[in-house]
Amino acid sequence: MTINADFENPNKSFDTYLQNTPTADGRYGKYGGAYLPPELVPAFEEITEAYNTICNSAQFINELRRIRREFQGRPTPVYHCERLSRKIGGAQIYLKREDLNHTGAHKLNHCMGEGLLAKFMGKKKIIAETGAGQHGVALATAAAYFGLECDVYMGEVDIKKQAPNVTRMKMLGANVISVSHGLKTLKEAVDAAFEGYMKEYKDAIYCIGSTVGPPPFPMMVRDFQSVVGYEAREQFKEMTGFLPNAVAACVGGGSNSMGMFTAFLADPVKLYGVEPMGRGTALGDHAATITFGSEGIMHGFDSIMLKDEKGEPAPVYSVASGLDYPSVGPEHAYLHDLGRVDYVSVLDDEAIEAFFLLCRNEGIIPAIESSHALAYAIKYAREHKSGTILVNLSGRGDKDIDYIYEHYGYGERFNLD
Predict the structure, then answer these.
(1) Check: CATH 3.40.50.1100 for 74-104+219-408?
(2) CA 183 to CA 101: how far, in whole Å?
(3) How far is CA 372 from CA 86, 158, 324, in A?
(4) Which of 34, 259, 318, 376 has its CA 20 to 30 A from that of 273?
């Protein structure tokens, strides 16, 4: 049966959730908090104070709204995948088209906010890490828009996988710094970005690319990204007259998913966070943090983390460069403990099959990250004879097509008929 917004709501306990979460010290239940070198404590306190000031400023809010409307092209639409839904059968699949946001992904939503914050604080440079390159491209775009210098740290492996985005960053004027230690992917890029920030924190701001890190970043990125969910909720209800039965989004660090989920927390809607199961369940073959992890501290915050035999961050893998992170945002860990969000997983091959299915049936080339959420939506549609599922299509797949073709051709190994 379709869930209507007027039906009795089992999630009324979340009506005041956003007013109370996080706590003043940046905690989401037992998760979150700040675990920083002493020299960085004042820097993050400065960022927190500045954000707490501007987030209540009508001038800042109005300027950010103008940027979203005139520069980013918001709002992005909700789209009904009519042909794909008919092919799959069962529940109808809808997409929130963040691939149509300027730069091709949801990342610009928080990067423009962080750039505006940097200008407010009088900083000259913004520093970031990137995995799939979308955060790096978005931050380089923000830096060009606001007239700031930009350093982007990126793992050597991801630089090779995401060559188009590296080119975009450099064209926008960013300094792309290759990280060649460890697994040479996202976790190492974050390590290197923190080290770089420690040397320049007086003149720079570290713009974290997800709902991870010390306060205020998990909250701040969630707030900036919540525009996705609020738009989608209003658009879906206007299109159909009711709320979706389910909402799905991929989860790496957690920015696109928290942005999507925030607007639906108090609604009678199932929420699914989709993690990357990679090649399988063996440690090092996936990045399904909530599925297999335990509480741990890394990159200045406490959350659920994948650990090796020594209790250190474990090696992780995903076909999606933006999802191969051994921890997850503290709010996701908290929502898992509360039972409000169901965290599920899909394999590489399931995500790639979903990639091709969307290409062939709807004329949309999705990012591999977003294809994980789409793959779960396809599973959901097959298991439910009726109803609706709304997917956050967090990015477009231009950055992925060379890699996809090299490893999967034109999808010949999949049953796309």
Answers:
(1) yes
(2) 31
(3) 20, 18, 13
(4) 34
Query: Model-level pTM?
Result: 0.94
**Residue 81 among the catalytic residues:** yes
Topology agreement, domain 34-70+107-217 and domain 74-104+219-408: yes
Q: Which is catalytic among the residues 55, 81, 359, 372?
A: 81
Of the listed 55, 80, 106, 110, which one is catalytic? 106
- Catalytic: 106? yes
Q: Domain extents for the chain? A: 34-70+107-217, 74-104+219-408
Q: What is the pLDDT along the chain (417 residues), one digit of tens a residue?
A: 333 444 457 787 899 999 999 999 999 999 999 999 998 999 999 999 999 999 999 999 999 999 999 999 999 999 999 999 999 999 999 999 999 999 999 999 999 999 999 999 999 999 999 987 889 999 999 999 999 999 999 999 999 988 889 999 999 999 999 999 888 888 898 889 988 998 999 999 999 889 999 999 999 999 999 999 999 999 999 999 999 999 999 999 999 999 999 999 999 999 999 999 999 999 999 999 999 999 999 999 999 999 999 999 999 999 999 999 999 999 999 999 999 999 999 999 999 999 999 999 999 999 999 999 999 999 999 999 999 999 999 999 999 999 999 999 999 999 898
Q: What is the CATH number of domain 34-70+107-217?
A: 3.40.50.1100
Give the largest CA-CA distance in the chain.
58
DSSP output for 105-149: BTTHHHHHHHHHHHHHHT-SEEEEEESSSHHHHHHHHHHHHHT-E
